[in-house]
Amino acid sequence: MTETTLEIIPADIVIVGAGPAGLMAADHLATLGHRVALYDRMPSPGRKFLMAGRGGLNLTHSEPLATFVGRYGPAREWIGPMVESFPPEALRDFAKGLGQITFIGSSGRVFPRAMKASPWLRAWLTRLGDLGVTLHTRHTFLGFDDAGAVRFSTADGAEVAARADAVVLALGGASWPRLGADGGWVEIIERDGVPVTPLEPSNCGFDVAWSEHMRRLAGEPVKRAAVVFGTERVRGEIMITGYGLEGGGIYALSRPLRQAIRANGHADITVDLRPDFSEAQLAAKLAEPRGKRSLSTHLAKAAGLAPASVALLREGHRPLPTEPEALARAIKSVPVRLVATRPIDRAISTAGGVAREAVDFHLMLRKRPGVFVAGEMLDWEAPTGGYLLQATFASAVRAATGVGKYLARRK
Ligand SMILES: Cc1cc2nc3c(=O)[nH]c(=O)nc-3n(C[C@H](O)[C@H](O)[C@H](O)COP(=O)(O)OP(=O)(O)OC[C@H]3O[C@@H](n4cnc5c(N)ncnc54)[C@H](O)[C@@H]3O)c2cc1C
Questions:
Q1: Residues 345, 215: contact at Cβ < 8 Å?
Q2: 74 pLDDT band (50/70/90 cuts)?
Q3: How many angstroms separate the alpha carbon of residue 239 from the centre of ligand 1?
Q4: Which residues form the pocket of ligand 1, taking CB atoms under 6 Å from any ligand atom?
Q5: How far is the CA of 273 from the centre of ligand 1 (A)?
Q6: Which residues form the domain of 97?
Q7: Do residues 167 and 60 both lie within one domain?
Q8: For 127, 139, 149, 371, which has the most beta carbons within 10 A of its beta carbon?
Q9: Residue 112: is its pLDDT beyond 70?
Q10: In the chain, what percentage of residues exceed pLDDT 90?
Q11: Same-domain check for residues 34 and 167
């Protein structure tokens, strides 16, 4: 059995997980004058945050707050008030305080001018260092000992424990595990009797039993489409992959699609390839004389369909009608059957996590007074568009506020 050494740390708060949630909690608490020790299993902090910045760091969204909080679906009642207390404007001000000027893109999404997370993270770590926050990397959270100290395994195989007056767990979800968050905490805190909703992929791809021809189109985008599932309709790009579909248009529907696949073994969506045109407008365009053009060329010229869209159309409608009205109807409603949810390790985010009933208003575990939870490890999900980071940061502010009050009460 490995012997545990009690680490003497000059801190009254231990934060485990140095992603956006842990860093925000550390900032908030250190600014209040608390001594904070921040732990992470990885050799460096904020790896998923850096990855999020690779394709343009979509920090938050500028839409009205009432619309914004609606994006959290069934978790709206819980996450909504956290976002209202720490809204997009507050996050933009916070970014500004770190020298990160933000702007609103044409879609209403908010980005830092630098577009990436690295300058932000650099400035943040410097500030946290100045505030006296100590960073302990290569420390993997193992749970709590009988006295409530936080147990870690270190890179050299030793086991250490850190005692603090309060703890914040900000261990993330289970997507992209190579960036640090692998959901290993679920088993640990379930042993404590904390209810956890099973972790599932969110903002993820789906499998489709494509024909050989479609597989050859892997990597081709279908731009400006609309995906319809039941009563929901989402505008956005979809990406054809060798196994099925990815992309914003499909990610936003991941919760109902996942649920339908679980219940029925499949989910039937339809893709509107020209959402900007009505069926009648499209039929009028397709009625233009075709001359000697092939049908594919006619679809490209008259209906503006790119080759990937034509291929998807042909895949969904066999045989493809040629009469303009029927063809227009087909273009606006291409059936695609999704047969499986892609594994969580390549999903953008995680659904499920520490259940709402497991924590109080300030996100303190009912089973472990003094231990708070923040970020993606809580049970909520949201589409891409800045809603993930906004809720991550807002929940960290809520938890950190709770820690401050908890420590004040104890004193
Ligand atoms: C490719 C990609 C692009 C994204 N783009 C965006 C975007 O543009 N906008 C947006 O809003 N969101 C985006 N996200 C989502 C966003 O990055 C996450 O929601 C956010 O990072 C969650 O923050 P967190 O602090 O809760 O968890 P994480 O960022 O996952 O941090 C958790 C930390 O805990 C550590 N940890 C985990 N387990 C242990 C353990 N046992 N012991 C010690 N440490 C541990 C990890 O190493 C990690 O550092 C993107 C995600 C991905 C994967």
A1: no
A2: very high
A3: 24
A4: 16-22, 39-42, 45, 47-49, 51-52, 57-58, 140-141, 170-172, 175-176, 180-181, 184-185, 348-349, 375-376, 386, 388-389, 392
A5: 33
A6: 4-200+346-410
A7: yes
A8: 371
A9: yes
A10: 95
A11: yes
In order of 185, 349, 395, the CA distances from 357 in angstroms are 18, 22, 15
Instruction: For residue 154, give the amino acid letter.
Output: T
Lowest model confidence (mean pLDDT) among 202-206, 237-241, 287-291, 321-325? 287-291
pLDDT of residue 409: 93
Token representation of residue 60 = 């938050």
Out of 59, 68, 171, give the residue to mutate to test ligand 1, the one with the largest number of ligand atoms within 8 Å of its CB.
171
CA distance 238 to 300: 18
* Mean pLDDT for the stretch of residues 153-182: 96
Same domain, 330 and 357: no
Nearest alpha carbon, ligand 1 atom 52:
348
On the question of pLDDT at 1 being above 60, the answer is no
The CATH number given to whatever domain includes residue 46 is 3.50.50.60
Candidate from 124, 377, 388 with most ligand 1 atoms within 8 A of CB, to mutate: 388
Intra-chain end-to-end CA distance of the chain, in Å: 37
The whole-angstrom distance between residue 33's C-alpha and the CA centroid of its chain comes to 31
Q: What is the pTM of this model?
A: 0.95
pLDDT of amino acid 269? 98
Give alpha helix (H) positions in 71-137: 76-85, 88-97, 118-130
Closest residue (by CA) to atom 41 of ligand 1?
Answer: 141
